[in-house]
Amino acid sequence: MIKQQNQLNLIKTYRMFQKMMNYPQLLDSMREIFLSALATRKIVDEETIRQEALKKLHDENQETDEEIIKEYTNLFIDLYFANFFSEEEIENHINLARKQDNFRNLNYIANLERATSKQIKRALKEFCEIPLGDLFISPNEAEGARVALINHFISNQLPFIGIAKKHITIRDIDELADHTFLNPRRPGRIGGKSAGMFLAHKILVPTLVDGDPEIERYVKIPESYYFNTGFFSDFTDYNKLYQFHSQKYKTREVIEEEYKYISKLFNKSSFPPDVVNDFRKFLNQVGEHPLILRSSSLLEDNFGYAFSGKYDSIFLANQGGLEKRLNEFIWGLKQVHMSTYGPEPISYRIDNNLIDFDERMSVLVQKVVGRRFGDYFFPFAAGVAFSYASYSWTQRINKEDGIIRLVFGLGTRAVDRTGQDYPRMVHLSHPMLRPEVEAEQISKYSQKIVDVLNLKSGQLESIPFTTLMQRSIHPDLYYAVSINQDGHLSPPMFKGQPIDPSRACLTFENLLTKTTISRLMKKILSQLQESYGRPVDVEFAFDDENLYILQCRTLSVSKDIGEVHIPKNIPQNRILFTNNLVVSSGIIKDIEYIVYVDPKAYGKLPTYDEKFTIGRVISRLNRLLHYKRYALLGPGRWGSNDINLGVKVGYDDINHTLILGEIAFEEKGYTPEVSYGTHFFNDLVEAQITPIAILPDQTDTVFKEDLIIHAPNQLSSMASDLASYESVVHVIHIPSFIDGRFLQVYMDNKEQQGIGFFGDKE
To answer: pTM (2 decimals)?
Structure first.
């Protein structure tokens, strides 16, 4: 019982009441909160306060009607609360009443069917302008509002929402909304790629709870802005491009042909003037920093459907006068939007039963991570990381610890199949373990070309590493290279040591041994996989000690079929091939056709166009054999950017094959690459296509090429207009040639052994 209030407590109570009177409509709510807090701390309960109020009225001979009783009760509540709670606690409890009031309004508007993004954003801002404090809205109520807000601004995909609602807070969505550009006429969401990146960052660096200190210190996302799908819809409406709504239902041939027409039409089309003005304001805000415009469609990076590399992303130097930068920005947006109608994503959607979904494109605009060196802009390193390593070359590797595909410069080199160039593959269970031992081997299987953004030309360029370093020595080169000294490779001993670029080899030895990147990435992948409940695929950039998350999605992993036992005692005359390089476990039975691109004949083709045409022949055969079980074998690297090293094909050119075999004859200088982590490889995994590497010149490898070359070629009988390509492309109907037998393939990852042989149909 309060018998006497000293002067200090009276002043404190007065000050508290002044703060309360800033929100007179919330006085009852505040006192309900005060009472609850007093009771929770077992200071006093509501009935005791009421009795004290009644006694005070009795002592003063006051009337005891309910209005007077309430007035005195409120007075005692205020006195008790001011006496037992600190100034900070008082502020927090007053703000809790404000939060509850604004939350009710936010929850109502967020769930209102016809509410606009602007209305929701305003209610969201009013709620988030209240200081965070230590007291929060009821978790159950907050979850419902988070789901509504995620559904409106981010994604309506249920698997994503199920995870996101546990990690993305209301204040996180306010942060995202501040970086989201809203179309004045059409609502929209930020799309899958943006959603995955944002969620990954909030899992790793949470807003309301303490996270891992090391992750919080080093892990970031680039400065990002979200031009949601409303701009795509508005652009379509403004230019009356309604005919493209049915584009996806046309044949592959028509889609390919009309895509050229779409490009011309998009270039002639324009955004509405008010939208262009918004773009101008944005570019004035971000200044002359290089940008990347990344596709972020509604379907992209969804659970089980990655759309790896299917849509366009555009680098912009973003240099010069505002109007020049504006024209380039608009061009880039059009390119990304236009890729929605490309043949590859449409084929991918058909294969995954997504064709009827109303796909719309959002664009994630980011400041490119990195620094400027002369005319070039690039990060120190970048790459792609996986929480589970499907492929390994030794049993010492723990697949569950994950793997990194690491490159110097822009990460485009890590996700695309390139020429005679190799990223550093880092198994996180043993970061320093690699299959190469000798300096010559390490140098051969190292990165030699660096992707950079040329700020002068505005183009993405691939430059020899030695040339780049001769023009501008990177200050962190100590972490990237090893030096060849008399046939021995070793990393620099100390920072500042002079480095001769002509003797340097990109190995990242010091980065992996003298920084926390391996441990940090291992923790990142583990946390993300735990939250997602499945393996994840993360694209990242590393610069100036900071690791930037660029993308996060679920990882397509080949089905684990358990142990594979390769059949014994197979007659030699029935074996087509054996292999022992980067073997994944699998059994592929009853293959009826082999499509074989003769590596030697392909290599002799004199022009780019002739080699390019072989890719079109393969694409045609892929469609003709759609409902047949067939294997595709050919030279070097399928899908490589270097057409001399492999047939140039995309996903929709090979998506019906069961096996993609890469034949590497040593005398031609071809060596099968571990493509794990590239967009092309991800396509194979998602389409359940088994990649196989065969080195015919190895003494322990069997490959009966003569058998394929001399078998009856069915190419002209399948398509008479392709007869002129029979010297390069062979189509073998196996049962017709091998006594009614079919090709049976067994691959054993544990023993790193594989075999393809002819056997009876099973």
So the answer is: 0.86
> In 3D, which of 261, 195, 263 has the Cα closest to residue 228?
195
Q: In what order do the strands lie in the sheet with 504-506?
A: 488-490, 481-485, 504-506
Alpha-carbon 644 to chain mean position: 30
Which pLDDT belongs to residue 543? 96
Is the distance from CB of 404 to CB of 383 less than 8 angstroms? yes
Structure tokens at 163: 């995870």
CB 518 within 8 A of CB 426: yes
Are the C-beta atoms of 733 and 704 separated by less than 8 Å?
no
What pLDDT, in 10s, does the model give residues 269-309? 999 999 999 999 999 999 999 999 999 999 888 877 777 77
User: 297: which strand partners?
Assistant: 361
Q: Whose CA is closest to 142, among 197, 104, 185, 179? A: 104
Mean predicted lDDT score pLDDT of the chain: 89
- HEC secondary structure over 221-277: CCCEEEECHHHHHHHHHHCCCHHHHHHHHCCHHHHHHHHHHHHHHHHHCCCCHHHHH
Instruction: Give the whole-angstrom CA distance, residue 125 versus residue 310.
Output: 36
The count of C-alpha atoms lying within 13 angstroms of the C-alpha of 217, restricted to the half-sphere facing its C-beta, is 7
Which domains can be identified in the chain, with CATH numbers?
A: 7-85 (no CATH), 179-367 (3.30.1490.20), 371-554 (3.30.470.20), 572-759 (no CATH)
Q: Give the H/E segment covering residue 291.
A: strand 291-297
| pLDDT attached to residue 340 | 92
- Higher pLDDT residue, 201 or 140? 201
> How far is residue 221's CA from residue 228's CA, in Å, rounded to a whole number?
18
Residues 26-48: tens digit of each pLDDT: 999 999 999 999 999 999 999 99
- Residue from 753, 759, 726 nearest 592 by CA: 759
From the list 250, 207, 219, the residue with the least C-alpha distance to 545 is 219
Both tokens assigned to 747: 């691959």
CA 598 to chain centre: 36
Of the given ranges (488-502, 616-630, 657-671), which has the lowest mean pLDDT? Answer: 657-671
User: With 60 as the cut, is the pLDDT of residue 209 above it?
Assistant: yes
Residue position matching structure tokens 């509410």: 115
Distance of alpha carbon 6 from alpha carbon 571, whole angstroms = 103
Residues 613 and 134: their CA atoms lie apart, in Å, by: 66
Cβ atoms of 520 and 218 within 8 Å: the answer is yes
Element (H, E) at 404: strand 403-408
